[in-house]
Recover the amino acids of this structure.
């Protein structure tokens, strides 16, 4: 082979090596740039999230202040009532806290809802009064009454069904994947989704009317829904549900409506079972101490929603639970 041919081949190999080195260098530079960009975006998102969380915690402090002022106002007036015309019930925002940071917040009185944990008593056994009310509520919402049995079995202390509509570990361990009933109080109504065939549609229909609180929490008639008020009064009673606009109008004019006394008078005229009537009357009130604060913070393209469960007592207001989902 002639020297000229050898030199040509050598130049070809050198050119190919140079092209490969340039390609590898370009790929490496692109990878470094991509990684640096992702790191910068991650750092920006983390900073925005932490900043949004601090703003949401500031909303918690503001809610605690508003509830404290409401309690002082009630003390001066000599009547402890919490209703939807008070300052705590008015939403905040959207308001720009600092340039580029927007807050929306609002308080919900959870004692205006049916407490699922009241379905069992302190010994972990069925509470017949709560079961009666909840079955009525389900019926008024167009849901099957059997769900009361299934939820009670989910919460009660035993592992034996008490009705043919119930379900305990034997049902849930047959699922794929298998799981068991907690047999204790629930912390969120979203646990309803674990019930067999309950489904998202039923959950979305029921969720606005129920909550998960300590079992001794009373129902605030000043903020309770029309369906819940009707369910407590009687299975055939529909006066509040028939004209919900009148309920809203009366509350706008009077604040707390119906009052606990008004409610008990209607209950007395409708409920024939005296023992049941007295038991229901003892479960209602006009004040609340459990609230849910919904805080939505927007920073640029980042948005977070924080849901805080607040316990408001005489010695102050404190956060007892935080979540990034409403229930």
């Amino acid at each position: 082979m002639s020297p000229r041919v050898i030199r040509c081949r050598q130049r070809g190999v050198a050119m190919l090596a140079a092209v490969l080195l340039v390609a590898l260098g370009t790929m490496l530079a692109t990878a470094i740039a991509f990684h640096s960009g992702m790191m910068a975006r991650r750092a920006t998102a983390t900073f925005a999230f932490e900043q949004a969380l601090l703003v949401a915690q500031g909303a918690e402090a503001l809610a605690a202040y508003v509830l404290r002022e409401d309690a002082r106002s009630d003390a001066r007036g000599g009547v402890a009532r919490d209703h939807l015309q008070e300052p705590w019930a008015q939403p905040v925002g959207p308001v720009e806290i600092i340039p580029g940071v927007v807050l929306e917040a609002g308080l919900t009185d959870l004692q205006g809802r049916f407490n699922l944990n009241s379905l069992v008593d302190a010994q972990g056994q069925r509470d017949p009064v709560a079961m009666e009310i909840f079955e009525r509520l389900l019926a008024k919402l167009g849901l099957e009454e059997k769900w009361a049995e299934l939820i009670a079995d989910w919460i009660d202390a035993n592992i034996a069904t008490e009705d043919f509509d119930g379900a305990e570990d034997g049902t849930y361990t047959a699922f794929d994947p298998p799981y068991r009933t907690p047999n204790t109080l629930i912390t969120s109504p979203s646990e309803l989704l674990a019930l067999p065939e309950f489904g998202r549609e039923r959950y979305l229909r029921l969720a606005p009317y129920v909550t998960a609180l300590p079992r001794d929490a009373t129902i605030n008639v000043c903020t309770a829904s029309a369906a819940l008020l009707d369910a407590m009064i009687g299975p055939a009673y529909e006066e509040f549900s028939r004209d919900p606009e009148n309920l809203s109008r009366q509350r706008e004019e009077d604040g707390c409506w119906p009052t606990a006394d008004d409610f008990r008078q209607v209950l007395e005229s409708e409920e024939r079972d005296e023992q049941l009537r007295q038991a229901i009357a003892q479960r209602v009130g006009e004040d609340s101490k459990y609230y849910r604060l919904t805080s939505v913070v927007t920073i640029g393209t980042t948005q977070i929603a924080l849901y805080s469960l607040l316990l408001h007592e005489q010695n102050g207001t404190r956060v007892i639970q935080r979540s990034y989902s409403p229930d």
The chain has two domains: 42-108+289-323, 114-285. The mean pLDDT is 87.
